[in-house]
Write a structure and sequence with these properties.
Blueprint: H1 2-15, H2 18-35, H3 46-71, H4 79-95, H5 101-124, H6 130-148, E1 159-161, H7 165-172, E2 174-175, E3 179-180, H8 181-199, H9 201-211, H10 213-218, H11 223-249, E4 251-253, H12 263-270, H13 282-301, H14 306-336
Antiparallel strand pairs: 1-4, 2-3
Helix pairs in contact: 2-13, 3-8, 3-11, 3-12, 3-13, 4-5, 4-6, 4-11, 5-6, 5-11, 7-11, 8-9, 12-13
């Protein structure tokens, strides 16, 4: 019986959407290890992988928030802007208004939660499409962020510096002198949300809402309440990402997280979370994020042009979306049959 269970588990793992990503991850390691010496560099080093993990922590929180919302069939395009807004709010609060660091963090995260609340209201009460509602909210948030970043002379500052040792420690503390604490925090968050989705009644309701909204209503699930929670959680995760980023660079910036607008979404889709909702999980999203960041780091080490890297990253997203589309199409055909 034990052998049969192991075989069944192994077959299930192979058939999962995350398994091809693991294969791709191994292939990338081999490929970059072979190509790095051509640029007088080494890829297969402890320093490289610590650097990759360090790069994961900020977009990792974006992927968690985006992934949970996508499982329910929703999407949030304002998340990275919320992250930048959080950073600017913290920097202005500490650097200009001389507030204690903890008060600045609380205010910034409350603003992030409020933005998520507004997104949920637009979608659930005004019946706006999530794509349109969150894109509009992203524009509004960026405008408010510019107002906050305007100093007493009326000049808008592209970046606001601050000097606070405690805030700096949040994003830069290293366990044992080499392992960033933010990595541990991110992994704990992935595990927590993974268990929340897969092992709790709330998680099962999220999957049902994303996979079959009609069945969710017939089962008595409060879809609107769940949507509010997920939109606010998505913005909160964006706020945490912004906190970590800002504490690392010691400044709030209007252009912060601009390149991470779709990183969380891409990681979630690559990891098997369907764009239409109802499938996937945090484990796959983590692997998807690991593949993206390993690819970016590898391309940098071998000396590839940043333009080529961006083109290939975009191609990776298109491939993931295409695969997700055809997977949903096959599933609908099976249900129809």
């Amino acid at each position: 019986m034990d052998n049969f269970t192991r075989i069944s588990t192994f077959k299930k793992a192979i058939r999962s959407k995350a398994f091809p990503l693991l294969i791709l991850f191994v292939i990338m390691i081999v490929l970059f290890t072979a190509l790095a010496p051509l640029n007088d560099a080494n890829f297969l080093t402890t320093r490289t992988f610590i650097s990759i993990l360090r790069d994961l922590s900020v977009p990792g929180f974006l992927a968690i928030g985006a992934g949970c919302l996508m499982v329910s069939g929703g999407i949030d395009l304002s998340q990275a802007t919320v992250a930048a807004m959080t950073g600017v709010t913290i920097a202005v609060s500490v650097g200009w208004w001389n507030l204690p660091w903890y008060a600045a963090v609380i205010i910034a995260l409350l603003i992030a939660l409020c933005i998520g609340l507004v997104n949920a209201i637009l979608v659930n009460e005004l019946n706006m499409m999530p794509f349109i509602a969150t894109m509009a909210m992203s524009t509004v948030t960026r405008a408010v962020m510019m107002l906050i970043a305007t100093d007493q002379t009326g000049q808008m500052q592209g970046s606001i510096n601050y000097n606070n040792p405690t805030l700096t420690l949040i994003g830069n503390y290293e366990i044992g002198g080499f392992l960033p604490a933010t990595i541990i925090a991110m992994i704990i968050a992935f595990i927590f949300y993974g268990l929340l989705l897969s092992k709790t009644k709330f998680g099962r309701s999220v999957y049902l809402i994303g996979g079959n909204p009609m069945a969710a209503r017939l089962a008595g699930i409060n879809s609107k309440k769940t949507s509010y929670i997920l939109f606010m959680n998505c913005s909160l995760m964006g706020g945490l990402a912004g906190l970590i980023y800002t504490s690392r660079v010691k400044q709030g910036s209007l252009s912060a997280m601009a390149t991470d607008q779709f990183t969380g979404l891409t990681a979630a889709i690559l990891g098997g979370i369907s764009f239409g909702g109802g499938s996937g999980g945090m484990g796959g999203a983590f692997i998807g994020l690991l593949v993206i960041k390993t690819f970016n780091k590898g391309m940098t080490i071998i000396g590839a042009s940043s333009y080529v890297t961006n083109v290939l990253s975009g191609a990776l997203l298109l491939a993931a979306l295409s695969f997700d589309y055809y997977s949903q199409r096959r599933q609908r055909k099976r249900i129809g049959a």
